[in-house]
Amino acid sequence: MAACNHRLFWAGVIEGFYGAPWSMAERLEILDWMKAWGLNTYLYGPKDDLHHRTVWREPYAPDDAAELARLIAGCRGRGIEFLYAMGPGLDVRYSDPRELEALETRFAQLAELGCRNLCLLFDDIPDVLDPADLARWGSLAAAQCGLVNAVRDWMETHVPGGRLVFCPTPYCGRMAAAGHGGEGYLAAIGTGLHPDIDVFWTGPEIVSREITLGHVAELTALLRRPPLIWDNLHANDYDGRRFYCGPYSGRPPELRSKVRGILTNPNNEQPLNFVALRTLAAYVHAGDAWEPRAAYHAALAEWRPRFATRDREMDPADLVRLLDCYYLPHEEGPEAERLFADIRDLLARDPATWGAEASDARHRMCHLRDLCVRVAGIKDRPLFHAMGRRIWELREELDLLDRYVAWRQDPAKRGEPFRPDSHLLQVYRGGFVPRLQGLLEIRGDGAFVPAVGKGKGPS
């Protein structure tokens, strides 16, 4: 049985990543963006707020409670729904009535602060029950439904009109196919969870390139309700070397009428999320046609003043060239992809055949390298600090490639090894993690295989 269709379509932002939570100033700026762009929902659940997971049973101390009340009031003053998320799944004892009392006590404090909506997240946890819970409930799905339904009953009395959202242990198609949560987990959730409770879902993958109508239709039938999309398209907490400034894409406009809402869990670094949120808002309010690349260009035009240095504005085409290098998890932007393909093809050929192509490639590499240097001078220092280390890594690689192409063009150097004095062994591209990454290769089909003879590094 599906929940009522008249409910608010939730569209907005999740502060739900692993890493340092945003500052209050950053949150309030996000709320201002949301109000201006027509996004209506803010979910607070940073994994590194200890009260979210580690000490989920403990209420906030007065100072922390006052800070959270300020955020809730900031949402209310801008017409934005506030949701609070807790993740008790790491150590909750489903058969112990004191755990339900702890959840009720926590939410009672949140309700006093002005919060009316609660999310109970059981993601990223072991999918096993202790013997007492297994004896009482028989399965993980039944145990979770029992606890979450009890919280819902308490809310109906103490916070009438509040909404409850549940995140299942397998929260994407790949996890479900692998059997996380046990056999028949999602079907049991669909049957056992009260129909008023919404369910989070990230799509076919944790970070989904596409979310199709067919995928959502199958899930809706299984859960007996449309899902609420927790979208990790712009999340970067799993890879500290990357950030994503590409457009909201891979979701057809028709998806909006098939789900409870769409909330995005974006980059850890708040200043980098302008395009992610601006294009999500454009998608939510678009008509039947949706052009992600056009929305990307429009968002960059609005964001471009933040890249100004003391003496110049960033050229629009240059901003596209730069941010196409930090596009989306599954693809580079067209400008970056074109440059990569041209350099790759050039290096695969005999330098005697390069001709003007080498000069053109070097010119484009040097131009992009110089853009990286120029970004260091932008007046918006929080924006620069959010991207600076990654931008400098791009600069170093471009500089190395330029030197290599120049060296290969020099007939006097033919046959000599290329050892630039600025990129020293064990210093450049060094560290334990890159060495570990060298031990396994990813094949084109996504399978990992041993990289024979690689990854050992210098002895």
Describe the fold and architecture.
This protein has helices at residues 24-37, 62-77, 97-112, 131-137, 140-158, 173-177, 185-192, 213-223, 274-285, 292-303, 316-323, 334-347, 356-375, 381-409, 432-437, and strands spanning 10-15, 41-44, 81-86, 117-121, 164-167, 198-201, 228-231, 261-264, 440-442, 448-450. It has 459 residues and is of the alpha/beta class. It has two domains: 10-290, TIM Barrel (Alpha-Beta Barrel), CATH 3.20.20; 316-411, STAT, domain 1 (Methane Monooxygenase Hydroxylase, Chain G, domain 1, Up-down Bundle). It has an eight-stranded parallel barrel with strand order 1-2-3-4-5-6-7-8, surrounded by four helices. A two-stranded antiparallel sheet has the order 9-10. Helix 5 runs parallel beside helix 7 (185-192) and helix 12 (334-347) packs across helix 13 (356-375). It is globular, with a radius of gyration of 25 Å. The protein starts with 9 loop residues before the first strand and ends in a 9-residue tail after the last strand. Residues 1-6 and 455-459 have low confidence and may be disordered.
